[in-house]
Amino acid sequence: MSFDWFVLPFSIGALILIVVLISRYILWVIKLSRADRRKSWRSVFSFKLFQAVWEVFNESLLHRKIFRVNALLGWMHMTFALGWFLLIVIGSVESKFHKEKVFNMPYDPIFLRYFEHDVHGFWFAEGFTTIMDTILLLLLVATIMAVSKRFFKWIYGMKRTTKLHPGDQIALASLWLIFPMRFIAESFTAGIYGNGGYLTQTAGDIFATFLPLKSLELGAWWTYSSALCLFFLFLPFSRYMHIPTEVFLIYLRKAGVKTPDNKLTGFSEFETYSCSRCGLCIDQCQLSETTGYDDQAVYFLQKLRRNILQEESSHNCLLCGKCTNICPVGIDITKIRLLKRTEFAPEMLFNYRHYENVIHHDERKVDVAYFGGCMTHLTPKIKIAMTGIFRKLNIRYNFVDENGSICCGRPLKLAGNHMQARDLMQENKRIIIATGAKILVTSCPICYNIFKNEYKFDKIQVLHHSEYLNLLHKEGALKLTPNEEKMVYHDPCELGRMMNIYEPPREILEKSGKLIPVQKEKNFADCCGGSLANLPLSEDNRRKVSKEALTKLLAPSPDILVTACPLCKKTFSNVSDTPVKDIAEVVYERMIE
Amino acid sequence: MKTFGYTIQNDRQIDFDAADKKLYRYVAEKEPDINLCIFCGTCTATCSAAEFKNMSFRKISLFLRRGLTENLKREIESCMFCGKCTLVCPRGINTRNIIFNIRKGIEEYEF
Ligand code: SF4
Ligand code: SF4
Ligand code: SF4
Ligand code: SF4
User: Fold this and answer.
1) What are the DSSP E strand ranges found in A180-245?
2) Does A252 reside within a domain?
């Protein structure tokens, strides 16, 4: 057995790391719901395991998603992950050949060069040294890239990169040290014993000309081992926790585990710790532009990990979903933030009993129930357009909230009051079912979201009015005369990123006029700034967000700005000189009777 | 029935001993905008809750300033956080956040 005292820091560090990781993971698995736990055990013996392994290879090693967004950053992450992985795998194979044993000490591959001075003695030895040197070279390049990213982030096309706390700084410094130290240690040994590859041998020979290698060698190996130890000890308290955690996250996801709608489970712990702090979410966040905002997804997750999350951080966010959309790890940050709000929400002084049975309907049979929503009552042109269309097409409809709305409940949920929202939801559900309609059409994407996802209607199809109008047009009931007005379309967050409705509004707009594309659209569209999700955002900052979003939308100088949400319409109207219209208004103006 | 909140000025003596301004200070610290209110009543005119029940943010604003916590508690129960009042306020007051913090404040001080 090869042994020297310097293997101890590495070995102890690795052991502590393993114990910490296992205990954390067990704790999180216990926090999963029983059904989720069952799912995750079962999937071990199924095809899902292979799918997970394949995805781990693609995402945790190759980092394909980061590649797609930012090639340079992707290359850096890939060489670090894949390079280190190969260094370990090929290194252990090499050490097994050397020792001619299947089971050797775990540190053998790490410090092989120190203990084995003979590279010519066994089959393919030079092949191994060449491969290992190449990997080391790639890792050294990646280290240089990582260091330069800290200081010259513009090279990587990033406006901002992540801020670090002390745990991260120590782990980062030791990570920066690991590969250069391995290179130096191996070169020193190669300079003395001639057991290096093309890289380490050349460097070793050069070092030998001016350095007393014999007295420096052991020190270099000690430093290498200590850097590894430091990295392992600080890993659980730093961003690098994502490396082991993401593997489990991918597996759980494949097994079908999800965060439920009403509470956070151990699954979100896995998500929270899987954030690689790549920083891609920072530039996405529109609040970054407003003054002094530092609660972007990455920092929110960091606060969660350090258990220092405050009410302000959980509420100061538009829940626009742009960070979730870009996140290469696929963390559902918006959902975590939404559910975290329950911890800070007030519980008393809610009383919705007097909303019971206040809305009555005539007994007329109808096909469509139309729910305007609170916001639509603030933008009456939308309801005039919708009821006008119903009437002109002789559709039997019931305007559910014509004389006042009981709120759909989503604004309460956005403030963290999930329990209280239930009362309103029950009453609305009762009223809507009582109309006897088969289709529920709503003009408000906020209502649409909760109607479709949480009301759980059995026999009623829920449609946003853009979908419904498009459907009427496709069926031939609704005919349009297009005009020459140039239009741009703004995707509301709740309709787009939350509900994936991108095409129906575009289809019907293309039939009613000239729709021109904008730079940031569909899942990359900006938030109008009006979001109900952000409680503390001041009026001034709101306007800033709206104006910035508006400038981008109006870049192609359209005649009108069209949207499909009363709240977006209201918000943009406050800052826009160009007319802002809802899709229903556009259709109503241009329909042929 | 919609009352715009202009009939709240019943004859009363101003009793400085009875007014408890703790809640007001709590809310004002979280949302200083409360001081900008000119009691115009636009918020009440648009309120979703006011369609069905006597409920007025204008009253809430006034009760808060006068330290009339008991009246406030009754008034605030029906708010559904729909946010219409915030959108119409001519002074750009974040009314929704004020209601949120009143509820929290009352809970915190156990009025
Ligand atoms: S939340 Fe996602 S996008 Fe943001 S830093 Fe973490 S991994 Fe990157
Ligand atoms: S949801 Fe939107 S506002 Fe909130 S952190 Fe993400 S990008 Fe920023
Ligand atoms: S609309 Fe604004 S200024 Fe007017 S009473 Fe309401 S909160 Fe006060
Ligand atoms: S948020 Fe409350 S006070 Fe404001 S309009 Fe809605 S129900 Fe009325």
Assistant:
1) none
2) no
Whether the per-residue pLDDT at A436 is higher than 60: the answer is yes
* Same domain (yes/no): A491, A462: no
Q: Which residue has the tokens 């300079």?
A: A191
Distance (Å) of CA A323 to CA A301, A317, A545, A550: 12, 11, 16, 20
Of the pLDDT bands very low, low, confident and very high (cuts 50, 70, 90), residue A292 is confident
Asked if B78 and B53 count as a contact pair (C-beta separation under 8 A), the reply is yes
Backbone φ and ψ of A225, nearest 5°: -65, -40
Q: Residue B58 domain-assigned?
A: yes
Instruction: Kindly indicate whether the ipTM for this predicted assembly is greater than 0.85, answering yes or no.
Output: yes
Same domain, A336 and A390: no
Residue B9 has pLDDT above 80, yes or no: no
Q: Mean of the per-residue pLDDT values for chain B?
A: 86
Looking at the structure, tell me whether residues A85 and A181 fall in a common domain: yes
Confirm whether pTM is higher than 0.80. yes
Q: For residue A353, give the chain B residue with the closest CA.
A: B78
Count of domains observed in chain B: 1
Give the tokens for residue A119.
């590279």
A272 lines ligand 1 (CB under 6 A): no
Name the average pLDDT for chain A.
91
* CA A404 to ligand 1 center in whole angstroms: 42
**Is A100 part of the contact surface with chain B (CB cutoff 8 Å)?**
no
Q: Which residue among A299, A320, A545 is best mutated to probe the pocket of ligand 2, counting the most ligand atoms within 8 A of its Cβ?
A: A320
Of A105, A67, A68, A110, the residue nearest A88 (C-alpha) = A110
Q: What is the CATH number of the domain that holds B74?
A: 1.10.1060.10
Where in the sequence is the domain holding B78, given as residue range(s)?
22-109
Q: Is the pLDDT of residue B8 over 60?
A: no
The answer to whether residue B83 neighbours chain A at the CB level (below 8 Å) is yes
* Four-point Cα dihedral A271, A274, A277, A279, nearest 10: -50
Do A212 and A314 share a domain, yes or no? no
pLDDT of amino acid A358: 82
**B48 inside 8 A of chain A by CB:** yes
A281 and A325 part of one domain? yes
Q: Give CA A316 to chain center in angstroms.
A: 17
Q: Which of A374, A409, A532 sits opposite B48 (nearest CB)?
A: A374
Percent of chain A with pLDDT over 90: 73
